[in-house]
Design brief:
The complex is a heterodimer.
Chain A: H1 7-20, H2 26-54, E1 57-60, E2 71-74, H3 76-99, H4 102-106, H5 109-125, H6 129-148, H7 153-184, H8 189-199, H9 203-220, H10 229-234, H11 238-263, H12 271-292, H13 296-317, H14 320-351, H15 362-365, H16 367-381, H17 388-401, H18 405-430, H19 445-463, H20 465-480, H21 482-490
Antiparallel strand pairs in A: 1-2
Helix pairs in contact in A: 1-2, 1-5, 2-3, 3-5, 3-11, 3-14, 3-19, 3-20, 5-6, 6-7, 6-11, 7-9, 8-21, 9-11, 11-13, 11-14, 12-13, 12-18, 13-14, 13-17, 13-18, 14-16, 14-17, 14-19, 14-20, 16-18, 16-19, 17-18, 20-21
Chain B: H1 2-20, H2 25-46, H3 67-98
Helix pairs in contact in B: 1-2, 2-3
Classes of the chains: A mainly alpha, B mainly alpha.
Main location (chain B): membrane
Membrane topology (chain B): Multi-pass membrane protein
Family (chain B): Belongs to the CPA3 antiporters (TC 2.A.63) subunit C family.
């Protein structure tokens, strides 16, 4: 019992409600939401430390013992993601302060962001499968509102598709929960795991496992189900895309990891093999998209898809190294995708276009922005001192240990093409003759600060691997051995 | 009884899929309505349809029907109600702004403004 772990859910909830009353007073909205998200960062940091010293923290809501009530569970994996989410939320708010128009801010932009953070954090912390569905809906409804806010023609058109896809996947989620309830008679994840271990993972349960893969794959954009993402993510303003790119798909990835390490881990030759090949195809199609486009938003959007594939390959390989690598890579990817979308937003704010053929020579007038983009590009590709390296190294190592040589080579090759795709932006956009009419001379100072925070974190993450590794291996231990999680929740 | 309900739910799902694959946006929204009806009926069916009293302790019955699926359905209904009303307003707004409800004319992944 620990009331601490409900705070990352309660803080954005209360603040979202309070902010609704101040929709005309932008100044108060900015101050309150900045304070709330800073508080979330601090609380999430305390939770990570508590979980590190005292083991998994659980909170039985209303004193109902699991499996009868809803239980919130903060293991190291969830609390690391909650901390990363809080940091992304804070920097996104800083970015929004200087990039969002007053009309958007008056129409409940900041409450929308708080409710989005509430949904994401809740999805990470819950220990109940139907409660996970509810937090998904909280997150999705805020994202519907944020994607269409401003209602340009492009946004209206793309949000129709986004909402339709998510309505269908939500219905599928309800259906999957119904099937699972019919077979097991419980909704608590730890209890589900125990019961499935007792009755053995029959063919029916494997079918449900694949149904869950389809549902979370629709949220997390894996290979045959990523078709909605490129269009939807380029419609809203940069700060919203950064929130979506850093958080929403990662919730799908988190859910796949949780479900396939905690509940459906008994038939790895079938389910994990499918997951491995789907993640390989996800990587391949992601890099094809990333190198095909000359639109900087599209390039970064397709890089989200590639990263999802890499993380899920780590989960599918299911060796200690691979799981640890995928935890490293997931946290790194949330930070660096936030930074990249902010950078793209800053570039678009300067040049007024996202078409790479229309501007060049940015480095002459905006050197700081240029070198920050360079660092972000190297970190994304996984160049050793930066944050993307250790994760990919461990994933590839785990892939070799699991005997998945082909897919491990796909991961390695993908790094090269990812590097090519972002270096293309750097070479064509920042080098060359300065294109005077395309480049505004105003320097977007407020936009650079949140990018600098995220990049500093990414560099510190890369250099501080020694310091981080006890946390990460604790997260990986829980994922590898479901009994730790089950004992913490059910207290047998 | 469960078999009959399963067949009915299957018919609802196939009608929903058929409608969602059509061109008109309103037909698609009707499809999502049918899809959520199907999903809700499926929870009820999968919870078991054995005979028993309504889940009220005042009934003083020997057996009650399972109360959990009913709570799940109630939650799922209000959620899908909220999403559907948002979706309908979005469809109305985009009809005003874009002047069409034909999904073929709402293409344009590759245009950027």
């Amino acid at each position: 019992m620990n009331n601490l772990i409900i705070l990352p859910i309660v803080i954005p909830l209360l603040m979202g409600i309070i902010l609704v009353f101040f929709n005309r007073n932008i100044k108060i909205q900015k101050w309150l939401s900045a304070i709330a998200s800073l508080a979330s960062v601090i609380v999430a940091g305390i939770i990570v430390q508590t979980v590190h010293t005292n083991g998994i923290q659980t909170l039985e809501i209303g004193n109902w013992v699991p499996p009868y009530g809803i239980v919130l569970v903060a293991d190291m994996y969830a609390s690391l993601l909650v901390l990363t989410t809080a940091i992304i939320g804070f920097t996104s708010l800083l970015f929004a302060f200087s990039s969002t128009t007053a009309e958007r801010e008056k129409f409940y932009f900041y409450p929308g962001v708080q409710f989005l953070l509430l949904g994401v954090t809740g999805a990470f912390l819950t220990g109940d499968i139907f409660n996970l569905f509810v937090f998904f809906e909280v997150m999705l409804m805020s994202s519907y509102m944020l994607i269409v806010l401003g209602s340009s023609k492009n946004q209206l058109r793309e949000s129709i598709k986004y909402i339709l896809v998510n309505v269908i996947s939500s219905a599928l989620f309800v259906i999957a929960v119904a099937y699972l309830y019919a077979l097991t008679g419980t909704l608590n994840m730890a209890d589900l795991s125990v019961r499935i271990a007792e009755m053995g993972q029959s063919g029916l349960l494997t079918v449900i496992a694949i149904l869950f893969l389809v549902i979370f794959g629709l949220k997390g954009a894996i290979f045959p189900l990523y078709f909605w993402l490129p269009g939807s993510y380029q419609a809203p303003p940069a700060v919203v895309t950064a929130l979506f790119g850093a958080l929403l798909t990662k919730v799908g990835v988190y859910s796949i990891t949780r479900v396939f390490t905690l509940i459906f881990y008994h038939e790895p030759t079938f389910t994990h093999e499918i997951l491995a090949w789907l993640s390989a195809l996800t990587i391949i199609f992601g890099v094809i998209g990333a190198i095909a486009y000359w639109d900087i938003k599209k390039i970064v959007i397709y890089n989200i898809i590639t990263a999802v594939g890499v993380i899920l390959f780590g989960v599918a390989a299911n060796t200690p190294n691979a799981i640890e690598g995928s935890v490293y890579y997931l946290v790194h990817d949330m930070i660096i995708k936030g930074a990249l979308f902010f950078l793209v937003g800053a570039i678009v704010a300067i040049t007024g276009t996202s078409n790479l053929r229309k501007f060049s020579g940015l480095i002459a007038s905006h050197p700081l922005l240029g070198w920050m983009f360079f660092i972000a590009a190297l970190a994304l590709a996984g160049i050793p001192p930066l944050s993307g390296f250790v994760g990919k190294l461990k994933i590839v190592q785990g892939g070799f240990e699991a005997g998945e040589y082909t897919i491990a080579f796909v991961v390695l090759l993908s790094s090269l093409l990812v590097l090519y795709s972002v270096m293309k932006i750097f070479i064509h956009g920042f080098w060359g003759e300065p294109n005077k009419e395309a480049i505004a001379q105003t320097s977007p100072k407020g936009l650079l600060f949140p990018i600098a925070i995220l990049l500093a974190l990414s560099i510190a993450y890369g250099f501080g691997v020694e310091f981080l590794s006890p946390y990460i291996s604790q997260a990986a231990d829980t994922l590898l051995d479901p009994s730790i999680y089950i004992q913490a929740v059910l207290k047998e | 009884m469960e078999i009959l309900m399963s067949v009915v739910v299957g018919i609802l799902f196939s009608a929903a899929v058929y409608l969602m694959l059509s061109k008109s946006l309103l037909r698609i929204i009707i499809g999502t309505g049918l899809l959520s009806h199907g999903a809700h009926l499926l929870i009820l069916t999968m919870g078991g349809l054995k005979k028993g009293a309504a889940p009220l302790l005042g009934e003083h019955a020997e057996v009650y029907v399972d109360p959990l699926p009913q709570a799940l359905i109630l939650t799922a209904i209000v959620i899908s109600f909220g999403v559907t009303s948002f979706f309908l307003v979005l469809a109305y707004r985009s009809y005003q702004e874009l002047g069409t409800d034909d999904m073929d004319q709402l293409r344009g992944n590759d245009q950027y403004e």
